[in-house]
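Q: Here's a chain of 455 amino acids. Please give me its 3D structure as tokens.
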Amino acid sequence: MNEVQEEIETQFENILSALKNEQMAEFRPRFLALHKHEQGQFYESLDISERELLYQYISPKELAEVFDILEEDNEDIHGFLEEMMPEYAAEMLSEMYSDNAADLLATLTDKQADDYLGLMDVEDANDIKELMHYEENTAGSIMTTEFVAIVANQTVRSAMYVLKGQAEVAEMVYYVYVVDNEERLLGVISLRDLIIHEDDMMIRDIMNERVISVSLDDDQQDVAQMFRDYDFLALPVIDSGQHLQGIVTVDDIIDVIDDEAVSDYSGLAGVNVDEVSENPFKAASKRLPWLITLLFLGMATASLINHFEALVSQASILAVFITTITGTAGNAGTQSLAVAVRRLAFKDEEVHSIPRLILSEILTGMLTGIVTGIAIFLVIFVWKHNLMLGVAVGTAMFCAITVANLAGSLIPMLMERLGFDPAVASGPFISTLSDLTSVLIYFNIAGLFLSVIMN
């Protein structure tokens, strides 16, 4: 443990001691002096009796800042809400940034969400309801409605006055958006520009009229790509009439990128890695569906090997290299799958042409197949002193890797075209499919070389 962690642990111990001893005068300043992330860590470390004391010492608004940084998919978060007084919880939710509150309420049952919304201020509740109605994984679903907007026909001095008035509730103040009387987006101006220009300058003379924005129904992955390309801290979200509806902030995009990475990794692993459970029965129930499915697909491979039993009985040496062929082809297919999912995630139009992708993957598979095939040929020739056996296995390795490489690349593309998540084409699935195809290739090629292998 480094010095910073030791210092935090000591702080937590002192704050917890003050809480347990009901020393509010000591607890509040120490707790509120923590970074918001550390406040969240401290809050989650408490047991229910300790949290009930905490609710007496901090206001719903102060707790809202803690909940703004907690993950809405935290398995304990529903319990946190239920242990609060309903009125306290509702006020806390209304003090959260609207997008975070909407995400949290979306994880509850409709009745639970309606109960909390019914206890909130009408305006706050309506803002949250509106966000909850947007389709999941769109710009509308991740935007916040707490932003700073000004009009073009005002001075820098008056704009700064507006900014100071709205800064406390705004989630992002580095960009100030310029709208007309009907809330249509006209331009954007940075906080830096407001600071460096003279107070009497008109906003319309210094604003940037070229505003990059996204639409309410744009996919969150496309929004994340725009953040990546332009290095924005926030992006305005508009409707079909160019009316400014909200902004997407970089902290929400980091969550999107993290979620997409977890989704892709889960697909490659064939299990939801985000659902970590210490309960072995629950963990097993999450993993069994894919394993059972792959078991039956694996049985197809076993049946195929059984079909070539006569061939193996004539040249038993062929059985030695089955796992080498299938394992290497499976690895090649998984590598190709990972690259394909990554490519699709970033929508790289330069390499998104289907014919070009197919040609590229065929050439990549052939090159890796040739090198790997030559390597296994040399190993077999030195080991078994059988030239034709090495040629047969090397040729099979070349063909199996080429096919697996092509399948690992094309299957995710096909799934995307059909409207499915490409990551669902998981590593275990591609690996098992490669087993099937590589066994078929191996034994058919071995059959052609059988007579010379036996000599």
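Q: Can you summarize the key feature?
A: The chain has a mean pLDDT of 85.
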